[in-house]
Specification:
globular, single chain, alpha+beta
């Protein structure tokens, strides 16, 4: 056997082994979700090697607050293009602060009538998933269509953003108008991580905010070693009177001990399970991915 033939065979064998291992991870995920009374969409992508695991990854699933990542990207794109400034003060009216929604911003300034830097509103929206902050940002940039068009313009097509938080709170079905496929969520995170979208300064701001996110302790982060660097954005819906939870989601980028990274997007949709189980599904899939990439690298 020539050296060239040996190298080709070695590469082929390595590829086959890698593919078999990836299939094993996919089978583990399939087994985990097989008994769950929910639609679970999963997309995992190892950035340095390109290994990909997909389960129901082309299904259109409701995002809930995951779409705040898309909104933040759009706002920061406008900052990078000089249309907005991180230091500019945004006037918060009392009418901007909806009473029956999750909003640490409203709790801090219950009467409104204050001027807050754009950077601070972005922080409320990403770190604490503030719903009023989200709608203030949407009003500032011109509404959901601006976000939808921008995300499509950078090559992420399997996503729709049509409703703000206030609209989603009015009627159950409205939340389904804001959907993504898990693959599209992973693609968007990939473009973000590879710095194809934002300036370095805007990238650093958003990365820092996502690593400080306070809403996902029981999802991607749960079960990973303490101190693991995770930059993520969650999304959660209410549960209907019929016991259906439309969305328990988390998308993020995980840093491995060897300095590598993987992207993981998990959407638990139309679930008849309780909230603890919905979050546990995400946590267990995250741990399976972590174990695979740490054991095989």
């Amino acid at each position: 056997m020539t050296i060239k033939s040996f190298i080709i065979l070695s590469l082929l064998f390595g590829t086959l082994v890698c593919h078999a291992q990836t299939n094993a991870l996919q089978q583990q995920i399939d087994q985990l979700i097989a008994t769950k009374k929910a639609t679970v969409g999963v997309s995992v992508y190892h950035i340095e090697t390109g290994q990909t695991i997909n389960v129901n990854s082309e299904k259109r699933l409701p995002m809930q607050s995951v779409f705040k990542f898309h909104i933040a990207l759009t706002v920061l794109h406008q900052v990078d293009n000089g249309k907005l400034s991180m230091n500019q003060k945004i006037r918060i009216q009392k009418s901007d602060l909806q009473p029956k929604t999750w909003s640490p911003l409203r709790d801090e300034f219950p009467e409104g009538e204050v001027d807050i830097p754009l950077s601070e509103i972005l922080t409320y929206t990403i770190v604490q998933s503030d719903n009023n902050g989200c709608d203030i940002l949407l009003k500032l940039i011109g509404g959901t269509k601006v976000v939808n068009d921008y995300i499509h313009s950078i090559g992420v097509k399997d996503v729709a953003i049509e409703a703000n938080e206030k609209e989603m709170h009015k009627t159950w079905d409205v939340q389904y108008r804001n959907w993504t496929t898990p693959q599209a969520a992973t693609l968007l995170l990939k473009k973000f991580f590879n710095k194809e979208i934002l300036s370095g300064e805007s990238y650093n701001f958003l990365w820092d905010a996502m690593t400080k996110a306070s809403t996902g302790a029981n999802r991607i982060r749960r079960g990973l070693p303490q101190g693991t660097d995770v930059a993520d954005k969650t999304g959660s819906s209410n549960t209907s009177p019929q016991g259906i939870t439309a969305a328990t989601n988390d998308i993020g980028i995980v840093t491995l001990p060897n300095g590598g990274h993987y992207i993981i997007s998990v959407f638990v949709s139309d679930s008849k399970e309780n909230n603890e189980t919905n979050e546990q599904i995400i946590a267990e899939i995250s741990k399976l991915a972590w174990d695979y990439f740490t054991d095989s690298k």
